[in-house]
Write a structure and sequence with these properties.
15 helices; 59% helix; single chain; four-stranded mixed beta sheet; alpha/beta
Length: 313
């Protein structure tokens, strides 16, 4: 767990640019417009950035064959450079072997122009240094490490050697969010409004770790388990990772709380912002997921069919 200015700058500007509506959190653009004011010059820079971002983003191919209900592996060369870097200049230097020189030069001018526009927000993020220290100590405890090992066994993969959790600035809205970016987990909080929550939300990295661990399953296993689930799921939304992947991560997040911090497990409260499918289905499968963890058993096709039998609109 750490705070990285480079990652913070990247996430704030990447999302505010709205270069890919399905990926960018709209809360950033709304906050920029209301708090900082979106100028014509801002819009021109965001358009130039979007052109580069789209060229180098690994857009998922059109799915062929049966639906896969688990997280795909993620490789985003531009984002990964910023997540690993200590500074924006370090990230740009890391990108030079991978991007055309003109694109890196344009990005350099983009950050030089746009980072000062967001400086007031980034200054607030200084609080994350202390938050990261506190939360890191909790994540390093034996119960968290043990649960991560159980999770790897549950998905039938080898435990990850490491994963990175980064704290990122988020507008002062009512809710918070988190994102899985491969081996990097982003926890997004407003450092003023949500600081107390950031310091105690140890289960949020567990949720995102579930997505990362799920993505590391073999393609064959993802295919076979998805088919087994759908074979007994007679009524469901459109088959996609949202059908199973997200509720399964939520259920594991709550299983962790039941083991590590049971006082924070509230079975009747909304689990996923009240989203009807994810919230309801996660609660239906929670007892079965918890039993699987208690038994130390991995997912298999028979168990997937049993989960599918609980599938209903």
């Amino acid at each position: 767990m750490r705070y990285s200015l480079a990652a913070d700058v990247f996430e704030v500007l990447d999302n505010t640019s709205a270069w890919y509506r399905k990926k960018c959190d709209p809360e950033y653009r709304a906050a920029w417009e209301s708090d900082l004011g979106l100028t014509p010059e801002d819009e021109r820079w965001f358009e130039r950035y979007a052109e580069i971002r789209k060229r180098h983003y690994p857009m998922p191919p059109e799915e062929e064959g049966p639906p896969i209900l688990f997280a795909p592996e993620k490789h985003d060369v531009l984002a990964d450079a910023f997540y690993a870097a200590g500074s924006v200049s370090d990230a740009l230097a890391a990108l030079r072997p991978h991007l055309p020189p003109d694109d890196v030069d344009t990005l350099q001018r983009f950050y030089a122009a746009m980072q000062p526009r967001a400086q007031r927000w980034l200054d607030e993020s200084g609080a994350f240094v202390e938050v990261a220290t506190s939360l890191s100590a909790r994540l390093d405890q034996a119960d968290v490490r043990s649960f991560a090992e159980r999770m790897a066994r549950f998905y039938g993969v080898t435990p990850a050697a490491s994963f990175t959790v980064l704290l990122v600035w988020w507008p002062p809205v009512d809710h918070v969010t988190a994102s899985n970016r491969g081996s990097t987990l982003l926890m997004k909080y407003n450092p003023v409004r949500h600081r107390d929550r950031a310091e105690r939300d140890v289960d949020v990295p567990i949720h995102e770790l579930a997505h990362f661990t799920s993505s590391r399953q073999s393609a064959e296993q993802k295919r076979d388990l998805s088919a087994a689930f759908l074979s007994s799921c007679a009524s469901h939304p459109e088959p996609s990772p949202a059908l199973l992947e997200e509720p399964l991560a939520v259920a594991q997040q709550k299983v962790f709380l039941s083991f590590a911090e049971p006082s924070r497990l509230h079975l009747e409260a909304p689990w996923y912002g009240g989203a009807p499918w994810t919230d309801g289905y996660a609660k239906r499968i929670y007892p079965s997921v918890r039993a699987r963890y208690e038994e130390g058993q991995p997912m298999d096709q028979a168990w997937m069919r049993s989960l599918g039998a609980r599938c209903m609109n």
